Amino acid sequence: MFSVTSSLFISLRRSFLTGKEINVQLHAAVLLVRRSMPEWRIIRILTGTDRQRHHTRTVIRFVLCRSTRVRLVLLVVPGQPETLSARMLVSLLLWWRQVSRSSAVEKALLLVPEAWSEVFLNVLPWLDIPSSCFKYELDTSSLRQIYPAPATYSRVRPPYVLFPLAREVPAALQEIKAHFPTLQLTFRRGRWELCHLGLQVAWQCSGDSCCYEFENPKPFQNLSREVIRSVETILHLRRFPPPAMEHPCYKCLPERWLESLILENPKLIHVDFEGPVFPQVPSKLDGSRRILDLLAVTSNGRLAVIELKVEKSLDIIFQGLEYWERVRHHLRQGDFTREGYFEGRPLSREDPLLYLVCPLFEFHVTMRTIRGLIRCRNVIQCVGINTDWRNGLRVLRRFSLGKD
Questions:
Q1: Tens of pLDDT along 370-393?
Q2: Phi, psi of 95 (to 5 degrees)
Q3: CA angle, corner 182, sides to 176 and 188, nearest 5?
Q4: Residue 102 is assigned to a structural domain of this protein
Q5: pLDDT tens digits, one per residue of 16-42
Q6: CATH code: domain of residue 112
Q7: Where in 95-236 does DSSP place strands (E)?
Q8: Fewer CB near the terminus (10 Å): N or C of the chain?
Q9: What is the 3-state secondary structure (H, E, C) of 26-71?
């Protein structure tokens, strides 16, 4: 099955090249696994970055054996942010696929730091592999199962919170919009904003109070010469082709720029989209705030989550899936109707669609491997766009993760 001695020696030898801190963490991780699962034998340990298989040094990977049974263990090293959860899940599926080609793997175990919230657990039921998740304490070499929740687990699941849609646009923003009609007026992150190609030029601070100039915010009440000059500067600098390629006004927030093009013509993504498209919809769960890139609806009332990336990203599918799961929950609870989204439009109870939008050649090659291990892949659509989308957005190819 595996060359136990040689593979373990090589893996440990490589770990010494990563520094003293990694050695300490690796030693503690090995001790944790051995004490927690004494009946299982560690036959392989992998640390460090594996670019060919897209693994990261922040996740230590173990192969355990007991007679003819094989288990995989992925341990996130201490001190890593919770944003690593999407990368961890990608690593899990790739590691599962790789090992299962030569061995019958019965289960995967995820070990995450005790400090992590449990929000990412909502994605685990959508993985088409048997898995469990534990929180660990390296100091005490102890594990606490959090998924599937044990029978003795009495923790109350925290509520999902959807931020309400504000109905009235501040008069100051309406005045700027009348003077510059090409600006996009959007309700984003719980406030009204005026944007040019995704870059905010004026926004609501609190109540009717507004600000302008994105680098050095200044409050204003009425349209003035200074406000007009600030907006005109952004309109001049943020365009294609740019007068100054390296200027922050042009380079910053590329995903917001792409988002603005879709807001302008959402039918490029799906010809059946109708009504408003909401950008940057905030949702909160267990203290973790997430911002959905775009939320749209089809003519028959089916919601659609649109996740955007402008560069190659392994995480896009799980970031999108986490947002999709939140929207699915809010839909079933009636939160969108209650909080004022899609007013007057009946929403379908069907599961939302999930669109992953990215330059075509930036879709990662591992997508083909991952898709076969996700249960809800039939609702996931990939939309490949042109690389020079700033010069005009075009869809080059569409493909579903549900079709082989």
A1: 878 888 888 999 999 999 999 999
A2: -65, -40
A3: 70
A4: yes
A5: 334 455 567 788 889 899 999 999 999
A6: 3.40.1350
A7: 105-113, 131-137, 142-147, 160-162, 184-188, 191-196, 199-206, 209-212, 218-220
A8: C
A9: HHHHHHHHHHHCCCCEEEEEECCCECCCCECCCEEEEEEEECCEEE
